[in-house]
Amino acid sequence: MKKLILQDPEQWAVLISPVRLEIVSFLEETGTSSIAEIAKGLGRTPDSLYFHVRKLTEAGILLRADGETTKARREALFSLPADQVRIPFRVDSKENVLALTKVTAALLRQADREFRHALERQEPPKVDGESRMHSHRLRAWMTSEDLKELNGYLNQIHRLLTQANRRKQGRPYAFSTVLAPLNPLPETGRQGKKAKPST
């Protein structure tokens, strides 16, 4: 699987938009598509996407392919230059940290919107005994081996979702993840007080 890591801060600035992230995510899943197909897949109108598709194309994040002819007109097709498009993790760059922060915030807003809309539609939380809506936050102390195992499971989930998406059966779901290391807490005693150093 070919992955494109965007190195240009101007590209990061273009990508920081919930709608543009949705477009990129959709094309990662489906491949070359027209604006009409993207709009249908995202539940939006084509007119609401033209500006965002143009910005992504001008930044080199989308590629314009040969169009297909319909009864009305010739429709442009768009694709990604790689299977996946990502912003690099460079914590020593203020621009990069700001871009990553904004992209993550946009993804969380999108997840919030999708979860809220499912609740508003009164979707049943379980079907055939299987949960289809989750909202959890877990904290844990993990070693390097634990992280390796966790990332292995996340990679398995990614492969499962990619394969399922190719079959286009059932109905679409959204799965969002955020993993972040926390500041270690000071050692505490049983009563919650900071432990005294042993002498």
**Low-pLDDT segments:** none
The separation of the N and C termini measures 56 Å
Largest sheet: 3 strands, antiparallel
Number of domains: 2
CATH H-level homologous superfamily name of the largest domain: Winged helix-like DNA-binding domain superfamily/Winged helix DNA-binding domain
Average pLDDT for all residues = 86
CATH architecture of the largest domain: Orthogonal Bundle
Question: What's the level 1 CATH class of the largest domain?
Answer: Mainly Alpha
What's the number of helices? 6
Tally of strands: 7
Proportion of residues in extended strands: 5-15%
Q: Helix/strand-derived class?
A: alpha+beta
Helix content: 40-55%
List the strand order in the largest sheet: 2-4-3
Order of helices and strands: EHHEHHEEEHEEH
Estimate the global geometry from the Cα principal axes.
Answer: globular
Radius of gyration: 21 Å
Named CATH topology of the largest domain: Arc Repressor Mutant, subunit A
Ordered list of secondary-structure elements with their pairings:
Elements: E1 3-5, H1 9-15, H2 18-30, E2 33-34, H3 35-42, H4 50-58, E3 63-69, E4 74-79, E5 84-86, H5 94-120, E6 126-127, E7 130-131, H6 144-167
Parallel strand pairs: 1-5
Antiparallel strand pairs: 2-4, 3-4, 6-7
Helix pairs in contact: 1-5
